[in-house]
TrEMBL record:
Location of this chain's protein in the cell: Cell membrane
Domain Major facilitator superfamily (MFS) profile: 11-414
Domain of life: Bacteria
Chief place of localization: membrane
Protein name, per record: MFS transporter
Heme in keyword set: no
Length: 436
């Protein structure tokens, strides 16, 4: 145990908790949605607007939040952002109609928008290259776990107090996390008094490089060249993820006939499958890299398998007549989709090094833009066609395109400022096809 428990593991646990709480605050609106629809008379299109209101500032804050984290450190930036999203969550409990709810969701998007790029930047000097996939996988698995436990948590609070109180309680919990984060986190291991020299050696990042972490101009042109395809694949991934996070409860209720009591279980099952997928994707990617030394193979394999598998299972889920079978197929689809998440978030670290915050924000802008379009488009198509079939087919098509594009993503095409990795080597026909 003594060998395993390091300060970086404490930092990792702290960030896992952040992802967990942030996703509860993000997706709780989807559980409340059927109640809002009934109480405030929202149409499917209006619900889509409420869902997507979060995504506009979320997308806008990606690069900005990551850039600020690169320049001023994740401790300051995350402390401010988490305070903003906590207050926004509380304010949602005081909304009085469509536009007030949209306004508070916009504020939530501002707070959470730069948080994940800043969190990615927080790992730059805390995680060795061979642990980055696992770190991104486990943190995002906690995000999916947060999404999975949101239905029972929210429904229990609603049953005991009301839907408004659920926002207030959850926002207060976010403020508590902020206090712990500011107390425990430091921007580099050098600044943390608990880190021993032996762990510094394990982390393997140059001390001088840590000290000048914020120095130098951001290489925007070179970063765009390396990150644009990653951003596009993240958009395609994000389109389907937003569907799961926003429309799944309504789909299961309206199209599959589940009642409110059943929703807590059957909404959670696909998201729990995502918890496993997130963690496993990071572990497998790191394992392939350790065994082969081939970073292209390690990252591309999980992207292709994950996106292709998500496509393979979402198609029969659309057309099966059995509601429980549909849930099982959606769970399988979400599992494969989430195999890619740790890899996507590892790529900014692989490619951009000390500029990982900015690169992570650039990549996750694709996810944010998907969040602007996907929920509204989904709601509009449901309202105009009276069916969930067409919007699900669009999601399937984007998954196929993303799987193909993933074959051209190159994590070894690094910025000059990025720290060097182990040399690559190829072996076997299967490796050559993926790592071309």
């Amino acid at each position: 145990m003594k060998k395993f428990l390091k300060v970086r593991h404490l930092i990792l646990g702290l960030m896992c908790l952040m992802y967990f709480i942030a996703y509860i605050d993000r997706v709780n609106i989807s559980i409340i949605a059927p109640m809002l629809k009934q109480e405030m008379g929202f149409t499917p299109t209006q619900l889509g607007l409420v869902f997507s209101a979060f995504a506009y500032p979320y997308a806008a804050m990606q690069i900005l939040g990551g850039w600020f984290a690169d320049k001023y450190g994740p401790r300051l930036v995350l402390g401010i952002l988490s305070t903003i999203w906590a207050i926004a969550t509380i304010l949602c409990g005081f909304s009085w109609g469509l536009w007030s709810l949209i306004m508070f969701r916009i504020l939530l998007g501002i707070g959470e928008g730069g948080a994940f790029p800043a969190a990615t930047r927080s790992f730059t000097y805390w995680m060795p290259a061979t642990e980055r996939g696992f770190a991104q996988g486990i943190t995002h698995s906690f995000a999916r776990l947060g999404g999975a436990v949101t239905p029972p948590i929210v429904l229990v609070i609603v049953a005991a107090y009301g839907w408004r109180e659920s926002f207030i309680i959850l926002g207060a919990i976010s403020l508590v996390w902020t206090s712990f984060f500011v107390f425990l986190y430091r921007n580099t291991p050098l600044e943390h008094k608990w880190v021993k020299p032996a762990e510094m050696k394990e982390i393997g990042v140059n001390s001088a490089e840590m000290k000048k972490a914020a120095a130098g101009k951001t290489p925007w042109k070179e970063m765009i060249k390396r990150m644009w395809l990653v951003t596009f694949v993240d958009f395609c991934y994000g389109w389907s993820l937003w569907v799961f996070l926003t429309w799944l409860p309504s789909y299961l209720k309206d199209a599959r006939g589940f009642d409110m009591k059943q929703l807590a279980l059957f909404t959670a099952l696909p998201l729990l499958a995502g918890v496993v997928g997130d963690t496993l994707g990071g572990i497998l990617s790191d394992y392939i890299y350790k065994k082969t030394g081939n970073l292209k193979l390690a990252r591309r394999t999980l992207l292709v398998v994950g996106l292709g598998g998500a496509l393979a299972f979402i198609m029969p889920a659309i057309y099966t007549e059995t509601p429980v079978t549909a849930v099982a197929l959606l769970a399988a689809s979400f599992f494969f989709l989430e195999l890619t998440n740790a890899v996507l978030w590892s790529l900014p670290l692989d490619i951009a090094g000390k500029f990982a915050g900015t690169a992570g924000g650039m990549m996750n802008t694709g996810f944010g833009v998907a969040g602007m379009v996907s929920p509204v488009a989904f709601g509009y198509l449901i309202q105009t066609t009276g069916s969930y079939e067409v919007p699900f087919l669009i999601s399937a098509g984007l998954l196929g395109v993303a799987a193909i594009c993933s074959l051209w993503i190159d994590p070894t095409n690094k910025l000059k400022e990025a720290p060097p990795e182990a040399p690559s080597f190829n072996g076997g026909i299967a490796r050559t096809l993926i790592a071309k």
